[in-house]
Structure formats: structure tokens, C-alpha cells
Amino acid sequence: MRAADLIHEPCSIARPLSFLGDRWTLIVLRQAFMGTRRFEDFHAELGLSRSILADRLTVLVDVGILRREPYRDAIRTRDQYRLTEKGIDLYPVLRALAAWGDKYLAEDGPFVLYRHRSCGGASEVVHRCAACGEHLTARDVEFSPGPGMADAA
Amino acid sequence: MRAADLIHEPCSIARPLSFLGDRWTLIVLRQAFMGTRRFEDFHAELGLSRSILADRLTVLVDVGILRREPYRDAIRTRDQYRLTEKGIDLYPVLRALAAWGDKYLAEDGPFVLYRHRSCGGASEVVHRCAACGEHLTARDVEFSPGPGMADAA
């Protein structure tokens, strides 16, 4: 299997990994969620090489997670990078990863607290049953082929 | 920034990406969640080269997401790979990614249905406020430094 093959796999985890399965892409995405929009700001915040940064921003634009939007600085018109709705919808993935990192890799407690802007309560990602509401672990889940699989077969 | 630096970043998204920010590691992890345990079965299911597969399994064992457990086949004792509790706790990350993939990359519907084993309801990952219960998007969340950040500063 090659990276480019993942987008054709009949699996909704494999397909996004064809472009998201790269640490720098995901770090750029995290930074976008922190409000960074301009190339120079991404560069200053992340310390990535300009070529890697430009490449990963282009990937995220090409797959529709970021969009380019012109803005005018002191000298000329440049592009900034804004999350699309498709990009915004990835937040639970990063939020779930942060919760795991907080639990296992942050000995002195979370580095960042994520709170509901309007009420101040903690943001949380919950894996649950849509029918009975029970909290689920991987052990509580069973798989079966969905409509897309029938079509892929 | 280099991959090895990520584990030292004061960020619970960056730290796990030091080892999880790799598509093959995540695909191996997905396969472990599907119940695969033996090297030959991972190899047959994923079609990865033996060296990449062995490397990624070792990474996942080294960070405590999988553990090796001996079993006896017809000829000799071999290792199988089992998810630890730390590994099981990553499930919401993959489940959230699958939900996003179902929404944006599965034109004919989900490839796999994830259901609550005991009641048959759909498994779902919800990003919500722990206090008021409201469903949250990235726009509803604000950040502040947590206890680990004070310590890292």
C-alpha cells in the first residue's frame, strides 16, 4: 500500500489519512484552529521551513480544509488561510487527540484549557451511543458493512 | 521544528503527533481496533512492507499503545500485539476521524457502520460542553493556559 492508495480504500479512516496522515499537516491545522491565518504568522509560530509550510498549506487548500482569501498588507495583496466548514468539522478529531494527550503526556496537567465561550464550562469529546446515550469504549462497538461498502464491492 | 521536538512542545496535540503523526502508524492502529493481533495478519490485511509494519508496531509498543503478548503457533512461540488501556483510549480520535470521512469522503454512504454492541444504536462522537451540554463547534471554544503551561514556562 502507498500513501496515494489510501484515498481509494473503502474506509473512512484511511481516506482522510491520505492527506491528514502527516504530522506537519496536522500541526498547521492545529495552528489554524488557534486563529493563525497568515503565512508569516504560521512560519513564526511553528518554526517549520518555508517550503514544508507552503506545501502543507497547499495540501490543506487543495482538499478544501483551508481556503485562500486575499488581504492587503502595507505593500501588496497577499493570501491568508481560513478554515472552511469542512475544516471546522475536523475539530473533534484534534480535540479528542488533545484530551488523550492531556491524559497521558501532560504530567503537570493540561497545557491548554478549552472552555465553552458562552458559559465557561469545559469542552469535552464524548463517544456515546446515539440511541441509549451510554458512554462507549472501543470494546462496546461492533462493525458491519455500510451502504458505501456494498457500492465499493 | 523537527519531529523529535514535538514531544517537548507544551501542547497536547503536538506531543502525541510525535509518534501518531504518521499515516502508517495510524493505519496499523486502526487495524488493531478491528481486532488484528498477529504480524502476519497485519501484513495480509494492510499490504505494508514487512519493514514498515515492524517499525510501526515497535513504535506503538514503545509508547505503550500496544503490548506484545506471546502465543504458540504450530511451530514456535510468537508475539501478538494487543491494545493497552492507553491504546483503547485513542478510539475517540479514530472514531471522530471516521465520522468526518463518512461526511466528506464517502459519496455513497459510510463503508462501515459502528453500533453499540448491547443496544444496536449508532456510535457517535460528540463535542459538547460538560457544564451546559450544548453541542460545540471550534467557534464556541476559547483557550486559556492550563496548569501544565505554567509549569512549562
Q: Look at the helices and sheets of chain A and give the structural class.
A: alpha+beta
Computed over alpha carbons, the radius of gyration of chain A is: 19 Å
What is the percent of helical residues of chain A?
40-55%
Instruction: Summarize the biggest pleated sheet of chain A.
Output: 2 strands, antiparallel
Report low-confidence residues of chain A grouped into runs of 5 or more: none
Number of individual domains of chain A? 1
Give the neighbour order of strands across the main sheet of chain A. Answer: 1-2
Oligomer: homodimer
CATH-derived architecture of chain A: Orthogonal Bundle
Strand content of chain A: 15-25%
Number of helices of chain A: 7
Short description:
Chain A is α+β, with helices and mostly antiparallel strands and 153 residues long. Chain A contains seven helices and five strands, in the order H-H-H-H-E-E-H-H-E-E-E-H.
